[in-house]
Amino acid sequence: MRAVRSGNFLGPAVLVALAGLALVWVPAAGGQGKASSEASFRAQFLVFPFENRSGDPRLEWLSEGLEELTIGRLSASGQHVYTHEGRATEVERYGLPMTARISRATMLRLATDLDADYVIFGSYTSDGKNLSVDGRLLRVTPAALEPATRESGPLDSLMDLDTRVVWRLLSTNDRRFPLTLEEFSRAQSPLRLDAFEHFVRGHSAVDDEVRVRELKQAVALEPNWPEPAFALGKAYSARHDCSTAIVWFGRVPKNNSRYVESLFASGVCRVWLGQPDRAEEAFLSLQELVKNAGAGVPEILNNLAIARERNGKVTAARGDLARAAELDPQENDYPFNLGLLALRAGDIAGSAAYLREAVKRQPDDPESRAVLIYALERSGQKAEAQGEREAAAEIPGLLPLPGISAETLANLDRLKTELDTATLMLEMEGADLPVAEASHPDAGAAGHDHAGRQQLAAGRLDDAQREFRAALATDAHDPAAHRGLAEIAHRRQRLDEAVAEYRASLDARDSATVRLALARVYLEQKKVPLAREELEKAVKLAPNYTEAKQLLERLGGTGQGAPK
User: pTM of the prediction?
Assistant: First the structure.
Protein backbone atom coordinates (compact mmCIF):
# COMPACT_ATOMS: atom_id res chain seq x y z
CA MET A 1 0.00 0.00 0.00
CA ARG A 2 1.47 3.27 -1.10
CA ALA A 3 1.51 6.45 0.92
CA VAL A 4 -0.51 8.23 -1.72
CA ARG A 5 -3.70 6.85 -3.19
CA SER A 6 -3.60 5.33 -6.56
CA GLY A 7 -4.81 7.38 -9.47
CA ASN A 8 -2.83 9.16 -12.13
CA PHE A 9 -1.62 12.72 -12.08
CA LEU A 10 -0.59 14.98 -14.90
CA GLY A 11 1.92 17.58 -13.84
CA PRO A 12 5.14 19.39 -14.56
CA ALA A 13 7.38 17.14 -12.49
CA VAL A 14 7.30 14.27 -14.98
CA LEU A 15 8.06 16.68 -17.80
CA VAL A 16 10.95 18.13 -15.83
CA ALA A 17 12.50 14.70 -15.45
CA LEU A 18 12.19 13.95 -19.13
CA ALA A 19 12.73 17.21 -20.94
CA GLY A 20 14.42 19.56 -18.52
CA LEU A 21 11.51 21.99 -18.52
CA ALA A 22 11.34 24.68 -15.82
CA LEU A 23 8.61 24.40 -13.19
CA VAL A 24 6.05 27.18 -13.39
CA TRP A 25 3.81 28.94 -10.89
CA VAL A 26 0.92 27.11 -9.25
CA PRO A 27 -1.49 28.56 -6.67
CA ALA A 28 -0.86 28.12 -2.98
CA ALA A 29 -3.57 27.75 -0.34
CA GLY A 30 -5.37 30.86 0.74
CA GLY A 31 -4.72 32.56 -2.57
CA GLN A 32 -1.05 33.24 -1.79
CA GLY A 33 0.53 32.44 -5.14
CA LYS A 34 4.34 32.52 -5.42
CA ALA A 35 7.05 31.75 -7.88
CA SER A 36 7.86 28.04 -7.94
CA SER A 37 11.15 28.54 -6.10
CA GLU A 38 9.31 30.10 -3.17
CA ALA A 39 6.00 28.24 -3.15
CA SER A 40 5.31 26.33 0.03
CA PHE A 41 3.62 23.56 -1.90
CA ARG A 42 2.11 22.79 -5.27
CA ALA A 43 -1.67 22.72 -5.48
CA GLN A 44 -3.48 19.62 -6.72
CA PHE A 45 -6.69 19.77 -8.77
CA LEU A 46 -9.51 17.30 -9.21
CA VAL A 47 -11.81 17.91 -12.20
CA PHE A 48 -15.31 16.47 -12.63
CA PRO A 49 -17.39 16.14 -15.81
CA PHE A 50 -19.46 19.21 -16.63
CA GLU A 51 -23.25 18.92 -16.48
CA ASN A 52 -25.19 19.00 -19.75
CA ARG A 53 -28.04 21.50 -19.27
CA SER A 54 -28.75 21.90 -22.96
CA GLY A 55 -31.31 19.10 -23.13
CA ASP A 56 -29.61 17.91 -26.34
CA PRO A 57 -28.29 14.33 -26.01
CA ARG A 58 -26.05 14.90 -29.04
CA LEU A 59 -23.94 17.20 -26.85
CA GLU A 60 -23.61 14.70 -24.00
CA TRP A 61 -20.03 13.93 -25.08
CA LEU A 62 -19.09 17.47 -24.01
CA SER A 63 -19.59 16.48 -20.36
CA GLU A 64 -16.38 14.45 -20.28
CA GLY A 65 -15.00 16.54 -23.13
CA LEU A 66 -14.89 19.66 -20.97
CA GLU A 67 -13.40 17.61 -18.14
CA GLU A 68 -10.60 16.40 -20.44
CA LEU A 69 -10.04 19.86 -21.89
CA THR A 70 -9.84 21.42 -18.43
CA ILE A 71 -7.38 18.76 -17.28
CA GLY A 72 -5.25 19.46 -20.34
CA ARG A 73 -5.36 23.24 -19.82
CA LEU A 74 -4.31 22.90 -16.19
CA SER A 75 -1.52 20.45 -16.96
CA ALA A 76 -0.12 22.46 -19.89
CA SER A 77 0.15 25.53 -17.68
CA GLY A 78 2.03 23.69 -14.94
CA GLN A 79 -0.68 22.59 -12.51
CA HIS A 80 -0.94 19.23 -10.82
CA VAL A 81 -4.19 17.57 -11.79
CA TYR A 82 -5.69 14.11 -11.55
CA THR A 83 -6.38 12.45 -14.88
CA HIS A 84 -9.83 11.34 -15.95
CA GLU A 85 -8.82 7.77 -15.09
CA GLY A 86 -7.75 8.74 -11.59
CA ARG A 87 -11.03 10.52 -10.92
CA ALA A 88 -13.11 7.72 -12.48
CA THR A 89 -11.37 5.09 -10.37
CA GLU A 90 -12.21 6.96 -7.20
CA VAL A 91 -15.85 7.44 -8.25
CA GLU A 92 -16.14 3.72 -8.99
CA ARG A 93 -14.59 2.87 -5.63
CA TYR A 94 -17.35 4.82 -3.94
CA GLY A 95 -19.96 2.78 -5.78
CA LEU A 96 -21.28 5.74 -7.76
CA PRO A 97 -22.56 5.26 -11.33
CA MET A 98 -20.23 6.88 -13.84
CA THR A 99 -23.16 8.87 -15.24
CA ALA A 100 -24.47 10.00 -11.84
CA ARG A 101 -24.67 13.67 -11.00
CA ILE A 102 -22.31 14.07 -8.06
CA SER A 103 -23.16 16.45 -5.24
CA ARG A 104 -20.68 19.02 -3.98
CA ALA A 105 -20.49 17.18 -0.66
CA THR A 106 -19.43 14.00 -2.45
CA MET A 107 -16.93 15.97 -4.53
CA LEU A 108 -15.41 17.27 -1.30
CA ARG A 109 -15.23 13.76 0.16
CA LEU A 110 -13.54 12.39 -2.94
CA ALA A 111 -11.14 15.34 -3.05
CA THR A 112 -10.14 14.98 0.59
CA ASP A 113 -9.50 11.24 0.17
CA LEU A 114 -7.24 12.09 -2.78
CA ASP A 115 -5.50 14.95 -0.92
CA ALA A 116 -6.60 17.43 -3.59
CA ASP A 117 -6.65 21.17 -2.84
CA TYR A 118 -9.19 22.32 -5.42
CA VAL A 119 -12.15 20.86 -7.28
CA ILE A 120 -13.25 22.19 -10.66
CA PHE A 121 -16.70 21.37 -12.00
CA GLY A 122 -19.33 23.17 -14.07
CA SER A 123 -22.11 23.01 -16.63
CA TYR A 124 -22.87 23.99 -20.19
CA THR A 125 -25.87 24.83 -22.33
CA SER A 126 -26.45 25.41 -26.04
CA ASP A 127 -29.16 26.61 -28.42
CA GLY A 128 -27.70 24.51 -31.24
CA LYS A 129 -25.45 27.27 -32.56
CA ASN A 130 -23.84 28.86 -29.51
CA LEU A 131 -22.36 27.35 -26.37
CA SER A 132 -22.19 28.77 -22.82
CA VAL A 133 -19.81 27.20 -20.30
CA ASP A 134 -19.93 27.82 -16.54
CA GLY A 135 -16.92 26.85 -14.43
CA ARG A 136 -16.77 26.61 -10.64
CA LEU A 137 -13.76 26.38 -8.33
CA LEU A 138 -14.27 24.65 -4.98
CA ARG A 139 -11.56 24.98 -2.35
CA VAL A 140 -11.22 21.84 -0.22
CA THR A 141 -9.64 23.18 2.99
CA PRO A 142 -11.24 25.28 4.27
CA ALA A 143 -14.25 24.50 2.10
CA ALA A 144 -15.20 27.51 -0.02
CA LEU A 145 -17.01 27.83 -3.35
CA GLU A 146 -15.84 30.60 -5.66
CA PRO A 147 -18.34 32.50 -7.90
CA ALA A 148 -19.19 30.95 -11.26
CA THR A 149 -17.18 31.92 -14.33
CA ARG A 150 -19.10 32.00 -17.63
CA GLU A 151 -17.89 32.21 -21.23
CA SER A 152 -20.06 32.02 -24.35
CA GLY A 153 -19.44 31.73 -28.08
CA PRO A 154 -20.09 29.63 -31.19
CA LEU A 155 -20.05 25.86 -30.75
CA ASP A 156 -16.89 25.54 -32.81
CA SER A 157 -15.05 27.86 -30.40
CA LEU A 158 -15.16 25.20 -27.63
CA MET A 159 -11.36 25.13 -27.21
CA ASP A 160 -11.07 28.87 -26.72
CA LEU A 161 -14.10 28.97 -24.41
CA ASP A 162 -12.62 26.40 -22.04
CA THR A 163 -9.22 28.10 -22.13
CA ARG A 164 -10.78 31.39 -21.02
CA VAL A 165 -12.85 29.69 -18.30
CA VAL A 166 -9.83 27.91 -16.80
CA TRP A 167 -7.64 31.02 -16.96
CA ARG A 168 -10.32 33.09 -15.21
CA LEU A 169 -10.74 30.45 -12.50
CA LEU A 170 -7.00 30.46 -11.78
CA SER A 171 -6.41 34.20 -12.06
CA THR A 172 -9.50 35.12 -10.02
CA ASN A 173 -8.53 32.68 -7.28
CA ASP A 174 -5.12 34.33 -6.98
CA ARG A 175 -4.56 37.88 -8.19
CA ARG A 176 -0.83 37.24 -8.48
CA PHE A 177 -1.28 34.54 -11.09
CA PRO A 178 1.59 35.49 -13.40
CA LEU A 179 0.22 34.44 -16.81
CA THR A 180 -1.87 36.71 -18.96
CA LEU A 181 -4.67 35.14 -20.97
CA GLU A 182 -2.49 35.38 -24.07
CA GLU A 183 0.43 33.61 -22.33
CA PHE A 184 -1.89 30.97 -20.88
CA SER A 185 -3.40 30.36 -24.33
CA ARG A 186 0.03 29.98 -25.96
CA ALA A 187 0.82 27.16 -23.53
CA GLN A 188 -2.05 25.11 -24.97
CA SER A 189 -1.52 22.89 -28.01
CA PRO A 190 -3.81 23.62 -30.97
CA LEU A 191 -6.23 20.78 -31.61
CA ARG A 192 -8.94 20.02 -34.17
CA LEU A 193 -12.40 19.95 -32.64
CA ASP A 194 -13.50 16.88 -34.62
CA ALA A 195 -10.40 14.95 -33.55
CA PHE A 196 -11.08 15.88 -29.95
CA GLU A 197 -14.70 14.72 -30.22
CA HIS A 198 -13.63 11.33 -31.60
CA PHE A 199 -11.09 11.00 -28.80
CA VAL A 200 -13.66 11.73 -26.08
CA ARG A 201 -16.21 9.38 -27.60
CA GLY A 202 -13.59 6.64 -27.83
CA HIS A 203 -12.23 7.29 -24.37
CA SER A 204 -15.67 6.99 -22.78
CA ALA A 205 -16.98 4.13 -24.96
CA VAL A 206 -18.12 0.98 -23.18
CA ASP A 207 -17.82 -1.23 -26.26
CA ASP A 208 -14.22 -2.13 -27.02
CA GLU A 209 -14.65 -2.08 -30.81
CA VAL A 210 -16.25 1.37 -30.68
CA ARG A 211 -13.44 2.61 -28.43
CA VAL A 212 -10.70 1.49 -30.83
CA ARG A 213 -12.54 2.79 -33.91
CA GLU A 214 -13.11 6.26 -32.43
CA LEU A 215 -9.55 6.54 -31.13
CA LYS A 216 -8.13 5.57 -34.50
CA GLN A 217 -10.26 8.25 -36.13
CA ALA A 218 -8.84 10.81 -33.68
CA VAL A 219 -5.30 9.72 -34.60
CA ALA A 220 -6.10 9.99 -38.30
CA LEU A 221 -7.25 13.59 -37.84
CA GLU A 222 -4.45 14.58 -35.44
CA PRO A 223 -1.49 12.24 -36.17
CA ASN A 224 0.88 14.05 -33.78
CA TRP A 225 -1.49 14.10 -30.79
CA PRO A 226 -0.14 11.62 -28.17
CA GLU A 227 -3.32 11.16 -26.08
CA PRO A 228 -5.29 8.91 -28.49
CA ALA A 229 -2.14 6.93 -29.28
CA PHE A 230 -1.60 6.29 -25.57
CA ALA A 231 -5.27 5.34 -25.13
CA LEU A 232 -5.00 2.90 -28.04
CA GLY A 233 -1.94 1.35 -26.42
CA LYS A 234 -3.95 0.82 -23.23
CA ALA A 235 -6.88 -0.62 -25.19
CA TYR A 236 -4.73 -3.17 -27.01
CA SER A 237 -2.86 -3.99 -23.82
CA ALA A 238 -6.19 -4.76 -22.14
CA ARG A 239 -6.84 -7.16 -25.02
CA HIS A 240 -3.42 -8.73 -24.33
CA ASP A 241 -2.46 -7.80 -27.89
CA CYS A 242 0.89 -6.54 -26.71
CA SER A 243 2.57 -6.47 -30.10
CA THR A 244 0.06 -3.86 -31.28
CA ALA A 245 0.01 -2.03 -27.95
CA ILE A 246 3.77 -1.49 -28.04
CA VAL A 247 3.50 0.19 -31.45
CA TRP A 248 0.97 2.71 -30.13
CA PHE A 249 2.90 3.34 -26.92
CA GLY A 250 5.94 4.03 -29.08
CA ARG A 251 4.15 7.03 -30.62
CA VAL A 252 4.17 8.95 -27.33
CA PRO A 253 7.15 11.37 -27.46
CA LYS A 254 9.65 11.78 -24.65
CA ASN A 255 8.56 15.33 -23.87
CA ASN A 256 4.95 14.27 -23.23
CA SER A 257 3.52 13.71 -19.75
CA ARG A 258 2.29 10.24 -20.82
CA TYR A 259 5.77 9.08 -21.81
CA VAL A 260 6.67 7.59 -18.44
CA GLU A 261 3.45 5.57 -18.36
CA SER A 262 3.96 4.49 -21.98
CA LEU A 263 7.47 3.26 -21.37
CA PHE A 264 6.36 1.42 -18.24
CA ALA A 265 3.44 -0.22 -20.06
CA SER A 266 5.73 -1.21 -22.92
CA GLY A 267 8.05 -2.92 -20.44
CA VAL A 268 5.12 -4.86 -18.97
CA CYS A 269 4.14 -5.95 -22.47
CA ARG A 270 7.69 -7.10 -23.19
CA VAL A 271 7.56 -9.34 -20.09
CA TRP A 272 4.23 -10.80 -21.23
CA LEU A 273 5.65 -11.38 -24.70
CA GLY A 274 8.58 -13.34 -23.25
CA GLN A 275 11.13 -10.65 -24.19
CA PRO A 276 12.95 -10.07 -20.88
CA ASP A 277 15.93 -8.43 -22.60
CA ARG A 278 13.70 -5.73 -24.17
CA ALA A 279 11.75 -5.43 -20.92
CA GLU A 280 14.95 -4.87 -18.97
CA GLU A 281 15.97 -2.20 -21.45
CA ALA A 282 12.65 -0.37 -21.01
CA PHE A 283 12.60 -0.51 -17.21
CA LEU A 284 16.29 0.38 -16.97
CA SER A 285 15.74 3.46 -19.16
CA LEU A 286 12.79 4.44 -17.01
CA GLN A 287 14.75 3.91 -13.81
CA GLU A 288 17.54 6.14 -15.09
CA LEU A 289 15.02 8.88 -15.92
CA VAL A 290 13.43 8.96 -12.48
CA LYS A 291 16.76 8.43 -10.70
CA ASN A 292 18.17 11.51 -12.42
CA ALA A 293 15.22 13.42 -10.96
CA GLY A 294 16.06 12.14 -7.48
CA ALA A 295 13.17 9.66 -7.29
CA GLY A 296 12.94 5.98 -6.50
CA VAL A 297 9.89 4.08 -7.70
CA PRO A 298 9.35 0.56 -6.32
CA GLU A 299 7.05 -0.55 -9.18
CA ILE A 300 9.81 0.14 -11.69
CA LEU A 301 12.45 -1.59 -9.57
CA ASN A 302 10.20 -4.60 -9.04
CA ASN A 303 9.58 -5.10 -12.76
CA LEU A 304 13.21 -4.43 -13.61
CA ALA A 305 14.17 -7.18 -11.16
CA ILE A 306 11.76 -9.67 -12.74
CA ALA A 307 13.20 -8.95 -16.20
CA ARG A 308 16.78 -9.15 -14.94
CA GLU A 309 16.24 -12.49 -13.19
CA ARG A 310 14.84 -13.93 -16.40
CA ASN A 311 17.97 -12.67 -18.13
CA GLY A 312 20.10 -14.54 -15.57
CA LYS A 313 21.15 -11.43 -13.61
CA VAL A 314 20.11 -12.74 -10.19
CA THR A 315 22.39 -10.55 -8.06
CA ALA A 316 21.23 -7.34 -9.75
CA ALA A 317 17.62 -8.49 -9.50
CA ARG A 318 17.96 -9.10 -5.77
CA GLY A 319 19.39 -5.60 -5.28
CA ASP A 320 16.51 -4.00 -7.21
CA LEU A 321 13.90 -5.87 -5.20
CA ALA A 322 15.58 -5.06 -1.89
CA ARG A 323 15.47 -1.37 -2.80
CA ALA A 324 11.79 -1.64 -3.77
CA ALA A 325 10.98 -3.26 -0.41
CA GLU A 326 12.88 -0.50 1.37
CA LEU A 327 11.03 2.25 -0.50
CA ASP A 328 7.57 0.80 0.19
CA PRO A 329 7.65 -0.94 3.58
CA GLN A 330 3.92 -1.69 3.56
CA GLU A 331 3.75 -3.53 0.23
CA ASN A 332 4.13 -7.31 0.54
CA ASP A 333 4.73 -8.03 -3.18
CA TYR A 334 8.39 -7.03 -3.00
CA PRO A 335 9.54 -9.34 -0.16
CA PHE A 336 7.33 -12.02 -1.73
CA ASN A 337 9.22 -11.70 -5.02
CA LEU A 338 12.50 -11.71 -3.10
CA GLY A 339 11.42 -14.96 -1.47
CA LEU A 340 10.61 -16.50 -4.85
CA LEU A 341 13.94 -15.36 -6.26
CA ALA A 342 15.84 -16.90 -3.34
CA LEU A 343 13.85 -20.15 -3.60
CA ARG A 344 14.60 -20.51 -7.28
CA ALA A 345 18.27 -19.75 -6.60
CA GLY A 346 18.43 -22.50 -3.96
CA ASP A 347 18.71 -20.14 -0.97
CA ILE A 348 15.85 -21.76 0.95
CA ALA A 349 16.73 -20.30 4.35
CA GLY A 350 17.00 -16.82 2.88
CA SER A 351 13.68 -17.22 1.07
CA ALA A 352 11.91 -18.06 4.34
CA ALA A 353 13.14 -14.82 5.89
CA TYR A 354 11.78 -12.76 2.98
CA LEU A 355 8.48 -14.63 2.95
CA ARG A 356 8.06 -14.10 6.68
CA GLU A 357 8.40 -10.38 6.00
CA ALA A 358 5.76 -10.61 3.25
CA VAL A 359 3.37 -12.38 5.64
CA LYS A 360 4.09 -9.81 8.32
CA ARG A 361 3.25 -6.98 5.91
CA GLN A 362 0.00 -8.63 4.82
CA PRO A 363 -1.12 -11.42 7.16
CA ASP A 364 -4.26 -12.10 5.12
CA ASP A 365 -2.39 -12.99 1.89
CA PRO A 366 -2.89 -16.76 1.41
CA GLU A 367 -0.29 -17.11 -1.35
CA SER A 368 2.52 -15.58 0.72
CA ARG A 369 1.65 -17.89 3.61
CA ALA A 370 1.51 -20.96 1.35
CA VAL A 371 4.92 -20.27 -0.23
CA LEU A 372 6.42 -19.64 3.23
CA ILE A 373 5.13 -23.03 4.43
CA TYR A 374 6.57 -24.63 1.29
CA ALA A 375 10.00 -23.03 1.94
CA LEU A 376 10.00 -24.07 5.60
CA GLU A 377 9.17 -27.66 4.69
CA ARG A 378 11.89 -27.69 2.02
CA SER A 379 14.42 -26.59 4.64
CA GLY A 380 13.29 -29.28 7.09
CA GLN A 381 11.58 -26.89 9.50
CA LYS A 382 8.46 -28.99 9.93
CA ALA A 383 7.45 -27.50 13.29
CA GLU A 384 7.73 -23.94 11.97
CA ALA A 385 5.66 -24.88 8.91
CA GLN A 386 2.97 -26.34 11.14
CA GLY A 387 3.04 -23.17 13.23
CA GLU A 388 2.34 -21.11 10.10
CA ARG A 389 -0.60 -23.38 9.24
CA GLU A 390 -2.04 -22.85 12.70
CA ALA A 391 -1.52 -19.10 12.44
CA ALA A 392 -3.33 -19.09 9.08
CA ALA A 393 -6.26 -20.95 10.64
CA GLU A 394 -6.71 -18.09 13.12
CA ILE A 395 -7.53 -15.65 10.29
CA PRO A 396 -11.11 -16.27 9.11
CA GLY A 397 -11.42 -16.98 5.40
CA LEU A 398 -7.69 -17.55 4.79
CA LEU A 399 -7.98 -21.33 4.45
CA PRO A 400 -7.66 -23.38 2.36
CA LEU A 401 -4.23 -22.20 1.24
CA PRO A 402 -3.27 -22.63 -2.45
CA GLY A 403 -1.15 -25.60 -3.41
CA ILE A 404 2.53 -24.84 -4.11
CA SER A 405 4.98 -26.98 -6.08
CA ALA A 406 8.35 -26.53 -7.77
CA GLU A 407 6.50 -26.08 -11.08
CA THR A 408 4.11 -23.38 -9.89
CA LEU A 409 6.93 -21.29 -8.38
CA ALA A 410 8.04 -20.28 -11.88
CA ASN A 411 4.77 -18.40 -12.51
CA LEU A 412 4.15 -16.65 -9.21
CA ASP A 413 6.17 -13.47 -9.79
CA ARG A 414 4.08 -10.38 -9.05
CA LEU A 415 4.53 -7.96 -11.94
CA LYS A 416 3.26 -4.43 -11.39
CA THR A 417 1.04 -3.42 -14.30
CA GLU A 418 0.17 0.14 -13.22
CA LEU A 419 2.57 2.94 -12.37
CA ASP A 420 1.62 5.23 -9.48
CA THR A 421 2.51 8.49 -11.20
CA ALA A 422 1.02 10.50 -8.33
CA THR A 423 3.63 9.18 -5.92
CA LEU A 424 6.32 9.47 -8.58
CA MET A 425 5.58 13.16 -8.93
CA LEU A 426 5.72 13.71 -5.18
CA GLU A 427 9.00 11.81 -4.96
CA MET A 428 10.54 14.01 -7.65
CA GLU A 429 9.46 17.14 -5.79
CA GLY A 430 10.41 15.75 -2.40
CA ALA A 431 13.92 15.02 -3.64
CA ASP A 432 14.43 18.74 -4.21
CA LEU A 433 13.19 19.86 -0.79
CA PRO A 434 15.82 21.07 1.68
CA VAL A 435 16.11 18.70 4.65
CA ALA A 436 16.03 21.40 7.32
CA GLU A 437 13.42 23.75 5.86
CA ALA A 438 10.97 21.93 3.64
CA SER A 439 8.09 24.39 3.80
CA HIS A 440 7.55 28.07 4.27
CA PRO A 441 6.99 28.96 7.97
CA ASP A 442 3.56 30.47 7.27
CA ALA A 443 2.47 27.72 4.89
CA GLY A 444 -0.55 26.80 7.00
CA ALA A 445 -1.77 23.28 7.72
CA ALA A 446 -2.36 22.44 4.05
CA GLY A 447 1.14 23.60 3.05
CA HIS A 448 2.77 21.55 5.81
CA ASP A 449 0.65 18.53 4.82
CA HIS A 450 1.91 18.77 1.23
CA ALA A 451 5.51 19.17 2.30
CA GLY A 452 5.05 16.21 4.66
CA ARG A 453 3.68 14.09 1.82
CA GLN A 454 6.64 15.02 -0.35
CA GLN A 455 9.12 14.12 2.37
CA LEU A 456 7.26 10.89 3.11
CA ALA A 457 7.31 9.89 -0.58
CA ALA A 458 11.05 10.59 -0.65
CA GLY A 459 11.56 8.33 2.38
CA ARG A 460 12.54 11.14 4.79
CA LEU A 461 10.44 10.05 7.73
CA ASP A 462 11.90 12.48 10.29
CA ASP A 463 11.33 15.47 8.01
CA ALA A 464 7.85 14.26 7.11
CA GLN A 465 7.01 13.88 10.79
CA ARG A 466 8.23 17.42 11.45
CA GLU A 467 5.94 18.79 8.72
CA PHE A 468 2.88 16.89 9.92
CA ARG A 469 3.44 18.08 13.49
CA ALA A 470 3.76 21.64 12.19
CA ALA A 471 0.40 21.18 10.46
CA LEU A 472 -1.16 20.03 13.74
CA ALA A 473 0.30 23.05 15.50
CA THR A 474 -1.76 25.16 13.08
CA ASP A 475 -4.84 22.91 13.16
CA ALA A 476 -4.94 20.29 15.92
CA HIS A 477 -7.71 18.38 14.15
CA ASP A 478 -6.13 18.25 10.69
CA PRO A 479 -7.06 14.74 9.42
CA ALA A 480 -4.34 14.67 6.73
CA ALA A 481 -1.61 15.35 9.30
CA HIS A 482 -2.87 12.63 11.64
CA ARG A 483 -3.03 10.23 8.71
CA GLY A 484 0.53 11.09 7.73
CA LEU A 485 1.79 10.51 11.27
CA ALA A 486 -0.08 7.19 11.33
CA GLU A 487 1.67 6.04 8.15
CA ILE A 488 5.06 6.98 9.59
CA ALA A 489 4.30 5.09 12.81
CA HIS A 490 3.15 2.09 10.78
CA ARG A 491 6.36 2.07 8.76
CA ARG A 492 8.32 2.11 12.01
CA GLN A 493 6.18 -0.71 13.40
CA ARG A 494 4.85 1.45 16.21
CA LEU A 495 1.44 -0.09 15.80
CA ASP A 496 -0.28 1.35 18.88
CA GLU A 497 0.84 4.82 17.85
CA ALA A 498 -0.39 4.20 14.30
CA VAL A 499 -3.81 3.16 15.62
CA ALA A 500 -4.07 6.31 17.74
CA GLU A 501 -3.21 8.58 14.81
CA TYR A 502 -5.57 6.82 12.42
CA ARG A 503 -8.30 7.17 15.04
CA ALA A 504 -7.56 10.88 15.37
CA SER A 505 -7.79 11.27 11.59
CA LEU A 506 -11.15 9.49 11.54
CA ASP A 507 -12.45 11.63 14.39
CA ALA A 508 -11.78 14.69 12.22
CA ARG A 509 -13.00 13.22 8.92
CA ASP A 510 -14.40 9.79 8.10
CA SER A 511 -12.60 8.01 5.26
CA ALA A 512 -12.86 4.52 3.78
CA THR A 513 -9.18 4.69 2.87
CA VAL A 514 -8.11 5.41 6.43
CA ARG A 515 -10.41 2.69 7.79
CA LEU A 516 -8.80 0.13 5.49
CA ALA A 517 -5.34 1.22 6.65
CA LEU A 518 -6.46 0.96 10.28
CA ALA A 519 -7.88 -2.52 9.65
CA ARG A 520 -4.52 -3.69 8.30
CA VAL A 521 -2.80 -2.45 11.45
CA TYR A 522 -5.33 -4.33 13.57
CA LEU A 523 -4.61 -7.49 11.57
CA GLU A 524 -0.90 -7.11 12.32
CA GLN A 525 -1.88 -6.87 15.98
CA LYS A 526 -4.02 -10.04 15.53
CA LYS A 527 -7.16 -8.07 16.48
CA VAL A 528 -9.40 -9.60 13.84
CA PRO A 529 -12.78 -8.43 15.25
CA LEU A 530 -11.57 -4.82 15.31
CA ALA A 531 -10.23 -5.17 11.77
CA ARG A 532 -13.57 -6.57 10.61
CA GLU A 533 -15.44 -3.69 12.24
CA GLU A 534 -13.32 -1.10 10.44
CA LEU A 535 -13.74 -2.87 7.11
CA GLU A 536 -17.50 -3.03 7.49
CA LYS A 537 -17.54 0.72 8.06
CA ALA A 538 -15.23 1.28 5.08
CA VAL A 539 -17.49 -0.74 2.78
CA LYS A 540 -20.54 1.08 4.08
CA LEU A 541 -18.85 4.38 3.15
CA ALA A 542 -17.59 3.12 -0.22
CA PRO A 543 -19.62 0.08 -1.36
CA ASN A 544 -17.39 -0.65 -4.38
CA TYR A 545 -14.07 -0.35 -2.55
CA THR A 546 -12.56 -3.57 -3.92
CA GLU A 547 -9.65 -3.91 -1.48
CA ALA A 548 -11.87 -3.40 1.55
CA LYS A 549 -14.57 -5.75 0.23
CA GLN A 550 -12.12 -8.55 -0.54
CA LEU A 551 -10.40 -8.29 2.82
CA LEU A 552 -13.75 -8.18 4.63
CA GLU A 553 -14.91 -11.32 2.80
CA ARG A 554 -11.72 -13.10 3.87
CA LEU A 555 -12.43 -12.16 7.46
CA GLY A 556 -15.94 -13.53 7.28
CA GLY A 557 -17.86 -10.29 6.65
CA THR A 558 -20.48 -9.81 3.97
CA GLY A 559 -18.63 -7.20 1.94
CA GLN A 560 -22.01 -5.87 0.81
CA GLY A 561 -21.86 -2.43 2.37
CA ALA A 562 -23.81 -2.91 5.60
CA PRO A 563 -22.50 -4.38 8.83
CA LYS A 564 -24.24 -7.43 10.22
Answer: 0.78
